Amino acid sequence: MWLRLFGIALFLVGIMVGLAGTTNMWEQDRAARVYQPVQAVVLQSSVETHHSGRSTTYEPHVSYRYSVNGIDHESEELSVWGESFDLHSSAQHFIDHYPADAIVTAYRDPDDAAKVVLVQDYSSGPYWMGLGGFYAAWLGIMMTAGATRSGPAGMRAVPMGDGGWTLLLPPKNLKKRARESLAWWVGTAAIVGLVAGHYVLRAQHWGVGGYFLLVVAAGWLVLQTALTFRHWGVQRAVSDARVMVTPVPLKREGPVSVRVELDALRPLRIESASTKIVCVEHYQEKRGNKTSSGTRTKGERPLDICSPKAIAAGEMVEGEATAHVDPDWPPTSADEVHYPYYTWELRVRLKFTGAADYQETFIITAE
Fold it and tell me: Dihedrals φ, ψ of 33, to 5°?
């Protein structure tokens, strides 16, 4: 429940940040294309220093007077996004163009004489706001829909009633993962298309910030495209794996048998097929004033399911293996509140030639 509430909050904050960014994008574009030049007189110029934590920024300050239809106006607006520099020399270089009493050109809104800028410029700042804000909003939507979770917590299993085997159910099936991956791609493509597309087609301001923005946006879209193709490729190559284990709960002092079956939906060649029984430690550590939490492998036992071979479409990939785990590994913890606590996983991986690998993690209980 808390994850969905956080997702809703993230959506609301993200959509506000994204809209603020796009509003500045459109206003920058309007200032560059619609605002009309007007003669102005510089009244004063200086550099203001701002400290925030360990960082220091320098903002140029220029006040100027201009006249529209015989009415004088004064302003300190430099640009739609504003001007700020990391170096004092850069800010000083900016105001050197606007000494006191100099006659310069400003640019005013033809519909509102009070709206004026001294510099017609495209900053990458609003584009970063739009990109980050809308992605945060999309992340909030996906969190609310449950797409950011690997699946239900805890072991999901069905007793087979034959030889003591228990069928482990995957947290999410291949079709659901493929649909979620496609949804991620659609959201990513829409956001990147909106923000980066406007920058390329309208702003065309090829500065360092702009190039970096485009590289990040393109890399993000390429990564999401690759993930989407991978999920859809796996779904079109094999069925969901049927993973059976005995005994369940897993006994640390005795043998553990694992059987894996899945159907080939097209001709495949298996390079390797293996599973790992993994004991995972969830820890929380305090170092100085900071507390860090995470996971690490307490122990793992690999099992080879079958040897490399070719599989025709419609045939079944199957294999079975038995192993002993270390009895010193901790059992599954009764609760997941007190650190450290321990969970157990069965990780299945089938590597194919010319096709995406099948990988899935199944939760299992050990005692």
Answer: -110, -25
**Same domain, yes or no, for 357 and 251?**
yes
Nearest residue to 317 (alpha-carbon basis) of 245, 256, 267 = 267
C-alpha 211/C-alpha 258 separation (Å) is: 51
CA 24, CA 53: separation in Å to the nearest integer? 27
pTM: 0.79
φ and ψ at 184, to 5 degrees? -60, -45
Q: With 0-12 CB in 10 A as exposed, 13-18 as middle and 19+ as buried, what is 328?
A: exposed
Q: Do 261 and 324 belong to one domain?
A: yes
Do 276 and 325 sit in the same domain of this protein?
A: yes
Task: Please report how the helices 174-198 and 125-144 are oriented relative to each other, as an axis angle in degrees rounded to 10.
Answer: 160
Q: Which residues contact 217 (CB under 8 A, 6 or more apart)?
A: 131, 192, 195, 196
Structural domains in the chain (count): 3
Print pLDDT tens along the chain (367 aa).
Answer: 788 889 999 999 999 999 999 999 999 999 989 999 999 999 999 999 998 888 899 999 999 999 999 999 999 999 998 888 889 999 999 999 999 999 999 999 999 999 999 998 888 889 999 999 999 999 999 999 888 776 566 678 888 876 789 999 888 889 998 999 999 999 999 999 998 888 888 887 767 777 888 898 999 999 999 999 999 999 999 999 999 999 989 998 889 999 999 999 999 999 999 999 999 999 998 888 888 889 999 999 999 988 899 999 999 989 999 999 999 999 999 888 889 999 999 999 999 998 889 999 999 999 9
Respond yes or no on whether the N-terminal peptide bond of residue 340 is cis (omega within 30° of 0).
Answer: yes
Domain check: are 263 and 203 in the same one? no
Range of the domain at 337: 242-364
The enclosing domain of 304 has a CATH number of 2.60.40.640
Domain boundary among 63, 95, 117: 117
54 Rama class: left (phi>0) / alpha (psi -120 to 50) / beta: alpha
The answer on 254 and 227 residing in a single domain is no
